[in-house]
From TrEMBL:
Pfam entry (one): HIT
Protein name in the entry: ATP adenylyltransferase
Assigned keywords, A-Z: Nucleotide-binding, Nucleotidyltransferase, Transferase
Keyword Nucleotidyltransferase on entry: yes
Domain of life: Bacteria
Length: 199
């Protein structure tokens, strides 16, 4: 059988029913177009590391919402959801095990603050938090450590990203940056959580 991928490229597909395999409970969504991203990784050269360049720019231009002593927080330029934040150390270090104790502590603290701020300003129902360590693991910028904080809401996924390869982002990055930055506590510590009164 011949089918076309999302870019219109023609490729062959065949049923796996006659292959030697043991069935399991997983459903699989095959995305061969992602292989180019994984293999090439869109990796910038060291001299053009966006996470080294960002702190040298003004906050609005770099989409930075908060600066700490060892780390800073900025909006992801290619967000999965509105408010998708990244926590980055200033130091150009590739993986979590190479971060200093001070960097690790501030990444954790800023991640907690980011969750509180996003809950307060956008009523997030949950979060995906994590790091892709190294090019092979799919890190978009593998040589500079960064933690993703993705706010989630009930039913925020639909056929659009799966079938159409498109993600609908309802708010402009500049507007989200201004809102999150304004709500970020000056001390970097806990912000007022509207749900705390009910706990």
């Amino acid at each position: 059988m011949e089918v076309r991928d999302i870019d219109g490229e023609l490729y062959s597909a065949e049923s796996s029913a006659a292959f030697a395999a043991v069935p399991d409970s997983f459903q699989r969504l095959w995305t061969p177009h992602r292989l180019v991203y994984i293999e090439n990784g869109q990796q910038p050269g060291e001299e053009a590391c966006p996470f080294c360049v960002a702190p040298t720019l003004d906050d609005e231009q770099a989409l930075i919402v908060a600066r700490g002593v060892h780390c800073y927080v900025l909006l992801n330029l290619f967000p999965y959801n509105s408010g998708h934040l990244l926590v980055c150390p200033y130091r150009h270090v590739a993986t979590y095990d190479l971060a200093t104790d001070e960097e690790v502590a501030e990444i954790a603290s800023m991640t907690q603050t980011a969750m509180r701020v996003l809950t307060a300003v956008s009523n997030a129902h949950g979060f995906n938090i994590g790091m892709n360590q190294g090019k092979i693991a799919g890190a978009g910028v593998a040589e500079h450590l960064h933690q993703h904080i993705v706010p989630r809401w009930g039913q925020d996924s639909n056929f659009f990203p799966i079938i159409a390869g498109t993600k609908a982002i309802p708010r402009l990055l500049g507007d989200v940056r201004a809102e999150v930055a304004a709500a970020w506590p000056a001390s970097g510590g806990p912000t007022t959580d509207p749900t705390e009164q009910t706990r």
